[in-house]
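Bumping with the actual sequence this time:
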Amino acid sequence: MRNYRHIEVRPIAGALGAEVHGVDMSRELDDEIVGEVRQAFLDHLVIFLRDQKVTPQQQLGFARRFGEPIEYPQLKGLPEAPMITPVVKLEHERNNFGGIWHSDTTYLQIPPMGSMLLAREVPPYGGDTMFANQYLAYEALSDGLKQTLEGLIGVSSSVKADVTRTREDRLKAAGVEHKVFSAEHPIVRTHPETGRKALFTSDAHTAQIKGWTEKESLPLLKFLWEHQTRPEFTCRFRWEVGSLAFWDNRCAMHNPINDYHGHRRVMHRITIAGDKPR
């Protein structure tokens, strides 16, 4: 365990995830505190802050200490803070936004470094989010499969059927259509800050392997998708109003659990600019 001088870091699972205590997002933070939070983020892949009472502008100010906020490509942000995307499921809706294992918007040429999600309204039960460590998923593969994956490129699409269904309610409410994006990224990427290798594919967005047909690609991809979310690679987070999750899109996947029909859930998400996967 790393020693921190200014914050307290409490892991919530063996694979990834930690609660960070001693940080108030509503205040201007010293560089030393920001540096330790960044280190905890790199160490644990997803970090959680509790009991944060902040305005949208304060949430944005906190996010800017870690990178450049960018607009989400499918939906508009808040009128007073366009870089904050409301992630909403209403009482009558059956679909939850992004309710499938994925890394955010890998169909973009430059996917985001990370995302910050702040709970504004939560159901009385359910609505947890799961996360999966893609370093561990890669490292658990056989040497033979690692060699097979070396150099393979995944073709990501924004319009795969399963993930498209999770956006239907929000896009309909906003009066907009699905935007079509496509990008190519390595199936195995190297993290630009830690130097570790991680699997970088998902059922939500990877349509096929470049140079392979969809039929040829599917058996290998299906094996990887099932492997990536083995229980020993995961953690599960229970939300409360004022909870914030900050995850590393480059080495962690997430899946919001859709088990709270009849209840309302409102979150504010900020996406932070990343780099071209290599």
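The tokens above came from a reply further down the thread. The mean pLDDT is 94.
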